[in-house]
Amino acid sequence: MIQVMVDFDRCDANGTCAALMPDVFQIKADGQLELLNAEIDDSREGELEEVILCCPVGAIAHS
Amino acid sequence: MTNARVFDPFAPDAGQHLGGAFDDQAILEGPFGYAVLGYELAGAVLRDRRFQNSALRLMEQFGITDGPVHDFRARSIIMVEGEPQLRLRTPLARFMSPVTVKNTRAVLRTIVEAIADDLDDSAPIEFHNTVARRIPSMVYCHLAGAPMSDAPKVQSISERTLSLLSRDPSLTPTILEAYDELFAYLDDLIGRKREEGLGEDMLSYLIALGDEGKLTELEVLTEATSMLEASSVNTAHQAALVVWTLLRDRNVWKRLSSDPTLIPAAVVEALRLYPRTGVVSKIATEDVEVGGVVIPRGADVHVAVWSANRDPERFENPELFDLDRERNQPLTFSTGPHNCLGQGLAKAEIEEVVGFLVERYPNATVVEDGTRVGQAGGRWLVDTLLVDLKP
Ligand code: HEM
């Protein structure tokens, strides 16, 4: 399993992550980000790499 | 609303308001529409998709109501929401995230050094024109895989297209002409790249996505156009504003000289105090309640970033430059779904300029006589910035 980490002090709620991996990241009704799943299957590493690359503030990382 | 005093977020004296709520109101109504002054409400509006960027309406107010420029704006990344926005956003994002920007640092350094080599440091230099204005367009050329000799053209086009934001309708012909030049320039550049063979750059990547059918030809052009207009003018002004701020605070400048790892925090703090993009304007696409006020559909909502960034409810001693602020998240690059896509790159550009000065010219000072920095319509502008590199 891969650990998904969000630095909420940096997070800017841009939401690209939530659009790319909606089962892992979600923009709540108040517009802020929620991490739905802190662990994902190894097979999804590529998807997560794309999300990390697309975060404009570099707030996402993995184990 | 029962606001007796008139407060105009665009007025020249807007800067006299220290920041945050005015007369206890974080949102105000006036002849301009609504102005959001407090940090929390400002963030809420910027994150709310029911508010749309006002750039298209501004164009229409300038008399640009149809034709290629109007159509470009209507389908550009700042105007579209949801799936269509994401289609435009992700292909670009990979070229400017902090993760990628790490690899761009070496290029940024080369650009800054090339510019510095042209400088005559024996007398004070006008920093905005001779340094700050030249960097972002060179960075764009690198991103787009264009020859560096195109940079002055890119800079000039970016400046003229974004002059829309100065809200001066007499500029309409200038703006239309600039977009014509922009479209023609990109057409030509894309043609040249196809002939020479695609590379690793952003524009090649977009062209390839077009060829694979993942973006339409129109989307490729729209992407490249948005990137060009957004790349240069704000970054140039913001870089000069940051240098102006840091050089004038000698204690901070000394700390940066002895510990350059503090530069990123110093840049963010200067961005907070002197945001080039001091007002981000939106339009309500339906009735929306904000801070107890119902904003009717179609109303203009101006987010006063300059005020939100100095809101005492969010930032302790907001008027002070504090290198040690925690959770320092100014709204200079907006926030939410349309936050600035280029912010990682813009910050890196500015950090490299500051890093270069700190290292090569640690004693540099601002020559106040001959420096003109001000605020117009809530936006911070640098007219001239005279710097003595070797006092
Ligand atoms: C210090 C310089 C810069 C400042 C202050 C700045 C500011 C902003 C702001 C405030 C917005 C958001 C508008 C909104 O909320 O509707 C924005 C959006 C954007 N910026 Fe920047 N920007 C800068 C540099 C750049 C650079 C260098 C690039 C590209 C190379 C860029 C590309 C973009 C794009 C493409 C958007 C639209 C994003 C979207 O709608 O999804 N910006 N910028």
Automatic annotation (TrEMBL), chain A:
Signal peptide: none annotated. InterPro entries: 3Fe4S_ferredoxin, Fe-S_cluster_ET. Coiled coil: none annotated. GO terms for molecular function: 3 iron, 4 sulfur cluster binding; electron transfer activity; iron ion binding. Its cofactor is [3Fe-4S] cluster. It comes from the Bacteria. Ferredoxins are iron-sulfur proteins that transfer electrons in a wide variety of metabolic reactions. PANTHER family: FERREDOXIN (PTHR36923). This is Ferredoxin. It comes from Streptomyces brasiliensis.
TrEMBL record, chain B:
It comes from the Bacteria. Pfam families: p450 (PF00067). GO terms for molecular function: heme binding; iron ion binding; monooxygenase activity; oxidoreductase activity, acting on paired donors, with incorporation or reduction of molecular oxygen. This is Cytochrome P450. The keyword Acetylation does not apply. Keywords: Heme, Iron, Metal-binding, Monooxygenase, Oxidoreductase. Its cofactor is heme. The keyword Metal-binding applies. Belongs to the cytochrome P450 family.
